């Protein structure tokens, strides 16, 4: 048993159950998970294996004997008649027959209708008057000759839900778990394997619980099929109801004007609309208007009467297009029916959950570990609805003044709900509430950005907050905007266009590489090794990869993809040495060796000389290049979440994969001075202005200014790579022949356009070559010594 499961049983014994047991007992029964776990909780809420085995058999027996299957309804009726009474499990709904002045029950699976039921039971369990409640009841049969009467009698009835919970006990138990542990417990309770989810992905799943814990919370989730959007609202809690979007009427939802019966919002904590999207769906404009009033004011009216309710509204549906397509051609509400495609209605939405970020459920994403009995958690969440945690952020942060009241309500309700879900005991750090605040802001900003694209009268809003202690202003962006609408950083080029030199060669523009950091967010897409750091690999002939975790199949795949990129960045006749330093458990070292040996043989054919070693003491992750750059990898090469396997396009297209949160840092290493005191052949190159009156000069960083000004520095040593040398010129008749393309030759030392820099005259260039007959300079046959002259220009100094 996992350590977390042991801990969960220790502090919540009798309230947790193994999540794989529902599969064992469900059989063909079409019944919600909370019904099955209610039964499992009676017999299997333990970590004792033998008790669990016996309990599973007992629950199977209960379902076999008492659960009503529709195709066996006549057998059950016969059993009741012959025995006089029989205990059954069925979904029961009740209506008032005002002609007979009595309540009458209907059984979803048994097929019985208009069965008299005690008014006391209806008063005690008012949800029976709505869409139906799963119950355990004793049904009797008393034959009668009385005309118009029925022999069926409901002798006893109890909805399937836990009756007593202790919220303070729950909060005290929470205090024994870390944030990460508690989130994993909640994921396991939902039937999910937390090991398959990043923190952001877990947060997306937990946001589905906010409507159960927050009154009058309006949530929308649109995304692809198969991500479990509707599962939570139909299976997790007896206090939520999932209805088809096409079945919604004002009478069913709010109040029946003819009978005066209150609709679903009066009885349920959460009303979720399934299959909400679909442009061609018929909708009722009058219903939309009533919903707008309810979502804004928490009330609805019938005639002169005004009714209040606390039900949260959830809208789930599928999108018709990819996110980039919607952002470019329409907006993220594009799939909604015409009458719901209304800015006034959509402005009432507190949070837009990005369903496209949630992966389609695979077998390995389901949990077989322990979690709360879902009915127990459902009652806890219901009890937490009484608390208000919406303004706790104000101890540390202040929202931007441009954020409207409606925007603020959306942000604070999402935040308050997540605080109740993750930190029910109210104990958290400033950093922990900050990450929830940013997520809540993002969810509301996603709504507002779409409204602005639909209606230009919606003003721009600065979705930022101020850290009170430091005064720092933090702006929050939505992930999809960062991915698809933020322009790629434009590379600074020494020359804007490629051109042809006097030898007829085409020279590509050179990209200016800069130091800095790239931050990847959970679930971000559009990232590949190539667009992340591919340009930094160019020209490197020796590459050292340090990553302690290159052992599992997908990690080996990542390594091969990097090696493929290295092969693409070098010239065909060039060889690149790549050395990997990694670790592995002793039992699996041989497997890694076998894989690396296959790589070694395979890579020889593309000019990559691959070597490796195992070092159990390494912890850092980096790519060290002999072209002057070092790439520090926060997570090593493992920057993506797991794909769906061979038949998932994400397996083959890096840009389609979901990222894990991490940081990648680009560091310019200090230049080392080449050893000129060797036996290699020296040759001075002519540095005349040439036939095109070209001038050589050197751009230097600020750190060299004083040395040059004081005359202490008259030479600058540079070791060049093939990539750069091919741009400078060729050796011809024992002389350095100017630049192929440029009017000047720029030798960089870590400057940027905005940074202080100076341009210095180059008096002469000494080229140290091994082969005086070489026709082309390469990094293998030369070094340059550049003799400096006068300062020509200073910029930003």
Automatic annotation (TrEMBL):
GO terms for molecular function: peptidase activity. Residues 10-141 form the BREX system Lon protease-like BrxL N-terminal domain. It holds the Pfam family BrxL_ATPase. One of its GO terms (biological process) is proteolysis. The keyword Hydrolase applies. Residues 526-668 form the MITD1 C-terminal phospholipase D-like domain. The keyword Amino-acid biosynthesis does not apply. Keywords: Hydrolase, Protease. PANTHER family: MIT DOMAIN-CONTAINING PROTEIN 1. This is ATP-dependent Lon protease. The lineage of its organism: Bacteria, Pseudomonadati, Bacteroidota, Flavobacteriia, Flavobacteriales.
